[in-house]
Design a protein that fits this description.
This protein is elongated. It is built from seven helices and 13 strands. The two termini are 28 Å apart. Strand 9, helix 5 and strand 10 form a beta-alpha-beta unit. Helix 4 packs parallel to helix 5.
Length: 303
Amino acid sequence: MKGKTTHSGVVPYRINENREIEILLIRNKSDSRWMLPKGHNEKGMSNRDVAHMEAWEEAGIRGTIMNPAFTKYGHPKQNSKVRVKLFLMKVSEVAEKWPEKKKRKRKWFPFDDARKRIWPGKLRKMLPLISQTIKSREGFMKEICFIRHGKSAQGHSSGSDFERPLNSRGEQDSLEMGRRLAERNFKPDLVISSPALRAASTAQRVAAELGYDIERIRYDENLYLCEISDFKELIKNMDDSIRTVLIVGHNPAIEMAEYYFTGTGRDRFPTCGLFIMDTPSWNQCGKRQCREIYYDYPKNVLN
């Protein structure tokens, strides 16, 4: 195998009149394999721009792309190894004529049918995650983002752990993670934070980047030195009208919450790291009953 190349593509979807997810797949007219629109990266173009271009050229579709790339996979092609980055696209336009119409067929599939037909086969394992991401984005699911406070200053004058402030890196990381959540179109209906200074400062910076009024942030003393039981009680008592929640807290509680609710464990959970999980309802948010749909941290370069 000679070299490595990078391709970018889209997972095109729409919601039909029955509120069901449909996926658009394409194939070469000389090939029976159904696949996603994708193509090799062009010099001077971002992965996202390439995904937009390939969606139009190969499938004749335009729409809204979710940034950043939400998944990636690799597979061999001829004499090279291909690494593919996929972006979720909600399709808003399907053209009658497009650049590669003579070469390709396209077809909308119900989600389960798309999962059975899609090539390469390894994508079939990723489609449940894709389904959950779409459902969260379209308001089918409740969604919680847990974020650990930013890096704090050591040796501060007050000497109190509760009053420990963010250092300059913690301030910058809080703003950066807020921007990334905004790019993902995460819009919290409610922001809840530990009242400890470093957590409250993180919550205020993240909320500001999301366009959330910092005066509306709710401070809950139970989130300082909290346990899983505190998270469970907090979530269980959420009003059903609330769909998205941002919770800012501390380790080891955030790390424990990720493992308890989603079954995902990590060697370490960095400062300003975050994960998003979803659930059909607040009452169903129990041990390993939620699905983790996103994880990020300041030094993550996938974005």
